[in-house]
UniProtKB/TrEMBL annotation:
<protein>
    <submittedName>
        <fullName>Bcr/CflA family drug resistance efflux transporter</fullName>
    </submittedName>
</protein>
<keyword id="KW-1003">Cell membrane</keyword>
<feature type="transmembrane region" description="Helical">
    <location>
        <begin position="382"/>
        <end position="408"/>
    </location>
</feature>
<feature type="transmembrane region" description="Helical">
    <location>
        <begin position="182"/>
        <end position="202"/>
    </location>
</feature>
<dbReference type="InterPro" id="IPR036259">
    <property type="entry name" value="MFS_trans_sf"/>
</dbReference>
<dbReference type="GO" id="GO:1990961">
    <property type="term" value="P:xenobiotic detoxification by transmembrane export across the plasma membrane"/>
</dbReference>
<keyword id="KW-0812">Transmembrane</keyword>
<dbReference type="InterPro" id="IPR005829">
    <property type="entry name" value="Sugar_transporter_CS"/>
</dbReference>
<feature type="transmembrane region" description="Helical">
    <location>
        <begin position="324"/>
        <end position="344"/>
    </location>
</feature>
<dbReference type="InterPro" id="IPR020846">
    <property type="entry name" value="MFS_dom"/>
</dbReference>
<dbReference type="GO" id="GO:0005886">
    <property type="term" value="C:plasma membrane"/>
</dbReference>
<feature type="transmembrane region" description="Helical">
    <location>
        <begin position="123"/>
        <end position="140"/>
    </location>
</feature>
<feature type="transmembrane region" description="Helical">
    <location>
        <begin position="299"/>
        <end position="318"/>
    </location>
</feature>
<feature type="transmembrane region" description="Helical">
    <location>
        <begin position="59"/>
        <end position="83"/>
    </location>
</feature>
<feature type="transmembrane region" description="Helical">
    <location>
        <begin position="28"/>
        <end position="47"/>
    </location>
</feature>
<dbReference type="GO" id="GO:0042910">
    <property type="term" value="F:xenobiotic transmembrane transporter activity"/>
</dbReference>
<dbReference type="InterPro" id="IPR004812">
    <property type="entry name" value="Efflux_drug-R_Bcr/CmlA"/>
</dbReference>
Length: 427
């Protein structure tokens, strides 16, 4: 991020603000935030309960972590299906159906008799959350592109950021009064509230004349065209590998902090929230940085710094220097750099394919959660200790940085990818 671009991007919400009353625009943005938060809620709320589930079913930690992997697999596969579907039939129908599936799966998780059933239901939860994730991203692309999309995604992540802060805390508090099954009762209530808000507030944003009707063959052609775009593929890989570092922390932190350092479920929730605060703060800092630097410059700088902090984390974890503080400080700094990368890589990727926003967002989300699904059990396979978590975090940041500079080549991206037009809402 050594050089700056000379033209400061506009500091308003672009012409979408002229097309919608402020109150309605705010409600739509909030609903989009809650929709995107459904996935993190599903993932994070039961983290304090992982050791309890391990003991309840009498299985290994790695086996219980596969329930997290199942959720991520559902999120990845669901987006590949729902994204193109939303391009063909519009955004609302797939979205509402998906959140309803999540609600039903959450209710069934409450009565799951064994780990196999729980894992299968977690896949269904992921499929339902996939609809919320991919359609919300596609709606953003229906309205904004480039700089405007990066700015809106940063604002949305402020709302989304409430999920990883509150989810483990809510999970920990729930465990004070009930078993791990009560966590899924809370998830079911949250899904019901999000479903209601979506049905009442979110309009259709994809006009009928902009819908794609090529069927399965058209979808295959769209995916083929997307996969033929080197820069787009590189950007979604960067997003996925950065997500892998995040999910290594998500899947391993409960064991590292509770079993390794002896924190209680509630203490873990507070420490986990500290990392989320850093990530959220970085997404909001991104809005200010966008006034001076282009998204590709911020992305490159955040990955380099994230790799440096990941190196420190691995060194301190391997030597034991600094104890808990020696783990948390570099870990939180890595999370902050992931928070800077998260809005910019998707915004740059989606700005290249506005004509198939749902499909492009689906492939982006599938790669993000697919790579995360691989990272989550890898921590368990390596031993669920601080070193295992640090190795996967470092590897994710290293791979993301290499792909960014060798494949994406951000310094060669034209300035046009920093800004773009806005498409009106479909009424």
């Amino acid at each position: 991020m050594a050089e700056t671009h000379t033209e400061t991007p506009p500091d308003d919400d672009l012409t979408a603000g002229e097309l919608l009353p402020p109150g309605r625009r705010l409600r739509i943005v909030l609903v989009l935030g809650f929709l995107t938060a459904l996935g993190p809620l599903t993932i994070d709320m039961y983290l304090p309960a992982l050791p309890a589930i391990t003991g309840n079913f009498g299985v290994t930690a790695a086996a219980v972590q596969l329930t997290l992997t199942g959720t991520l697999v559902g999120l990845a596969l669901g987006q590949l299906i729902i994204g193109p579907l939303s391009d063909a039939v519009g955004r609302r129908v797939p979205l509402i159906a998906g959140v309803a599936v999540h609600l039903i799966a959450s209710v069934l998780c409450v009565v799951a008799p064994n780990l196999a059933v729980l894992g299968s239901l977690r896949v269904l939860q992921g499929l339902g959350a996939a609809a919320a994730a991919v359609v919300a991203m596609a709606v953003v692309r229906d309205l904004f592109t480039g700089f405007a999309a990066a700015k809106l995604l940063s604002r949305l992540m402020l709302v989304v950021g409430v999920a990883p802060i509150l989810a483990p805390t809510i999970g920990g508090q729930t465990l004070q009064f009930t078993s791990w099954r009560g966590v899924f009762v809370v998830l079911a209530v949250a899904a019901a509230a999000i479903l209601t808000a979506t049905a009442l507030v979110l309009p259709e944003t994809l006009a009928p004349q902009n819908r794609r009707s090529g069927g399965i063959a058209g979808t295959v052609r769209d995916y083929g065209r997307l996969l033929g775009d080197r820069v787009y593929v590189g950007l979604i890989l960067v997003a996925g590998l950065a997500m892998a570092a995040l999910f290594a922390y998500v899947s391993g932190s409960s064991y590292v902090l509770q079993e390794g350092f002896g924190l209680s479920e509630q203490q873990f929730a507070y420490v986990f929230a500290g990392g989320a605060v850093g990530l959220i703060g970085a997404t909001q800092l991104n809005v200010r940085l966008l006034r001076r630097w282009m998204p590709q410059q911020i992305l490159a700088g955040s990955l380099v710094l994230g790799l440096a902090f990941g190196s420190v984390l691995l060194l301190l974890a391997a030597t034991g220097v600094g104890g808990l503080v020696g783990i948390l400080i570099p870990l939180w700094l890595v999370l902050a750099m992931v928070g800077l990368a998260m809005p910019n890589a998707p915004a740059l990727a989606l700005s290249r394919h506005g004509e198939a926003a749902g499909t492009a967002a689906a492939l982006l989300g599938a790669v993000q959660f697919g790579v995360g699904a691989l990272a989550a059990p890898l921590v368990g396979v390596l031993g669920v200790g601080a070193v295992a978590m640090a190795v996967v975090v470092f590897a994710g940041m290293l791979a993301a940085t290499l792909v960014c500079f060798l494949v994406v080549r951000p310094h060669r991206l034209p300035a046009e990818h920093a800004a773009g037009p806005v498409v009106a809402l479909a009424h």
